Amino acid sequence: MIIEVNGVGYRLQVTTSTYETSNIGQSETQFYIHHHFRENEQTLYGFLSRFECKFFEALISAHKVGPALGLSILSTYGPDQLIDIVNSQDIDALCLVPGVGKTTASRLLIDLETKFKKLSIGSEHLPSKANGTTNADIKDVRDALSGLGYGSEEIYAVTKDLPSETETSELIKLALQKLAKNS
User: Fold this and answer.
1) Closest CA to 94 of 39, 150, 153
2) Separation of alpha carbons 22 and 120, rounded Å
């Protein structure tokens, strides 16, 4: 995205949701900027809220997470969803992010948990109820929905509240029903 400030154009990297919700060209928009310096380049990352910007900075301070991966993570999941994923230690949900494998996801969950505690992020987002469904069942449901072409944000939204003690085939049916209602 290119923004103009006092007659000067700046290339701004933004998340998918920021791009979709910003009113660029229609009205004045305020961005919170993270200015990233490298040896041979400077990149600007823009966010619509200070919280999202600070969240991005916490993400990129984690081991092996650069700005591109941090932006990809925030484009896949919003800060609230990511806090829920970290609190529930949901490796499979994090693996739905392009560029994140099992090893990176498990390391990232550990890093982010400690960073969130230091920054007091996430304590108000602790899961409100225990869910008895196993991680293997949820992974099967996510794999099935992903195979059907659903996006990671849609998959996370429908699988986070699936009922406990239900067979995988029933969980898939419930998830598909939720997705049908949402569209």
Assistant:
1) 153
2) 28
- 157-183 pLDDT tens trace: 888 778 777 788 888 888 888 888 876
Helix-strand-coil percent breakdown of the chain, rounded to 5?
A: 55, 15, 35
The pTM is what? Answer: 0.65
DSSP helix/strand/coil, 1: coil
**What are residue 177's phi and psi, to 5 degrees?**
-65, -40
- Any idea what the CATH number is for the domain that residue 94 is in? 1.10.150.20
Q: Are residues 36 and 69 in the same domain?
A: yes
Residue 94 structural domain: 2-125
Which H or E run includes 11?
A: strand 8-14
Tens digit of pLDDT for each residue in 74-132? 999 888 888 888 888 888 889 989 889 899 899 999 888 888 777 666 544 433 334 45
User: What is each CA distance from 167 to 78, 100, 107, 123, 134, in whole angstroms?
Assistant: 29, 28, 30, 31, 10
Pick from 57, 52, 55, 47: nearest CA to 14: 47
Alpha helix (H) residue ranges in 24-167: 50-60, 67-76, 79-87, 91-94, 102-119, 135-147, 152-159
Q: What is the dihedral of CA 162, 127, 84, 20, to 10 degrees?
A: 70
